[in-house]
């Protein structure tokens, strides 16, 4: 089987690695890929949201299965375009991916199908948003409706910060058209967790719960990023909470999307706040999380090609997802300055000195001659598999200690919350 992976981050490197272990996968392509993926796959220089060029590639290489990593091509309708020509593709169609592409749509679905989430108001007018904020007071959360690379959410501790956020999103248009509409919502308190599930539109199979680390500095300080590290399983999601999330959130969402004429097939990711009233949805993603995919895929024992094939046949109920025992921890190494401005082109050393059971998944890396260099904000995800979380934390940081490049930054507390 020939597999094409669309994307070029750490998540896609983990996908390529996982497919490379499948005896059924004979060749892997990746568009556009990165320096690490290039060791496992043929990287083709096509940007992940270039739908016509990807379609051409699938036709010319006769790809048997296309797997879409990031959200932009999903929202741009890549899955619809491939399906239209009869090519097997894993990911939700455009109308289903809108559950990530529009936070307003996500809220409407949750309200209509009684899925627990923060109360909220929707505004396309900055003055009306401001008077609502003054009425409800702080703290509250201000969110741009559209895609903003994980940066369109501001948790405002007081009214002034919330008003400044409205100004930033609607008047200064910091996220462009993604901020034409905003949501102002209740600030929830608790611990966060991510629950991802495979679904064929009918059956829903949850994966191991994971926890992301969104802020750039230790102890959850500093601005939000795409994610500075993750681990799985996340002990905060007890068996009882996992059951509650499946029954009250994941299944009703999949059913609700079908009832809305947006049948959902692919990965449904619910970002949760575990409140004292139970799990509440903060957001949905229509794909694997990055970096959550890295530890989840290291924990997955089943052959991913088998799972996706059953899913595309609508036979996910035939699949018995098998997991490794123990735990996996991923520490993201970023460029200095990320999520603000950062340098590119610094030489990375130590990548071949990883201990056993540690993968150095590449994110923003490139090749300069035959040297691997930094090429993005998040550079690497050092991901370890061990018998429990403390051992996996130790092993991941042993891997981190081997790597060096100018300006390297990482959090030193990944996984710490799991030890409480
Ligand atoms: P989102 O992209 O919607 O997941 O938001 C990014 C981050 O903002 C989340 O991971 C939370 O840390 C925070 N957040 C979003 N919504 C809320 C909320 N209603 N209450 C508290 N924190 C929130
Ligand atoms: N790590 C969060 C995300 O992938 O959106």
**CATH topology label of the largest domain:** D-amino Acid Aminotransferase, Chain A, domain 1
- Number of E strands: 22
Spans of at least 5 consecutive residues with low confidence:
none
Strand content: 25-35%
Largest sheet, described in full? 5 strands, parallel
Number of helices: 12
Assign the CATH architecture of the largest domain: 2-Layer Sandwich
Q: If strands are numbered along the chain, what order do they take across the biggest sheet?
A: 3-2-1-4-5
Give the name of the CATH superfamily of the largest domain: ATP-grasp fold, B domain
Helicity level, as a percent range?
25-40%
Given the C-alpha coordinates, what overall shape results?
A: globular
Distance between the termini: 44 Å
The CATH class of the largest domain is Alpha Beta
The mean pLDDT is 97
Structure description:
- The protein has 420 residues and is α+β, with helices and mostly antiparallel strands.
- The chain has 3 domains: 90 residues, Rossmann fold, CATH 3.40.50; 68 residues, Dna Ligase, domain 1 (2-Layer Sandwich), CATH 3.30.1490.20; 233 residues, 2-Layer Sandwich (D-amino Acid Aminotransferase, Chain A, domain 1), CATH 3.30.470.
- Helix content is 30%, strand content 26%.
- The strands form 6 sheets. A 5-stranded parallel beta sheet has the order 3-2-1-4-5, sandwiched between helices.
- The mean pLDDT is 97.
- The protein binds adenosine monophosphate and glycine (GLY).
- The site of glycine has 8 residues, from loops.
